[in-house]
Task: structure prediction
Amino acid sequence: RLQVLGLQSLQRRRERFITIHVWKLLNNKVPNDINMEFSYNERLGWKAKLPKLHGRAKSSAKTLYDASFAVTGAKLWNLLPKDVNTVSDDLDAFKVRLGNFLKTIPDHPPVTSYTATNNSSVLDWSSQSGGLRKKLTTL
Result:
């Protein structure tokens, strides 16, 4: 039903919001109070650095670490192709490119009493069967 209406799942909208906020951090549109760091790679464009986690951290701390904005945002940002993550002139232009990129990734929201292959997260699609880049080249 979402596809018929041209809508995205809640999970996909949340990931889109996170990615847009990371763009705003990179382009100094909002305060970078989490000290997210970026580096530029000529081939890949802007990449976010993942914050470090102590190797001996408890599993509960690792769960919180993985769910944090700094980690989730960095992982989502690092999946973006160069033509999307290098748009720095205009937020609307970035949103259009991000939207076009997200349309290439399957969006199958969870349905009650139905076993899904993953939870429809962009991060899940990137880690399954060869990764997101492989999936996108076959589309």
About this structure: Helices lie at 2-5, 10-26, 59-67, 69-79, 82-85, 91-103, 122-127, 132-138. The beta strands are 38-41, 45-48. The chain has a mean pLDDT of 85.
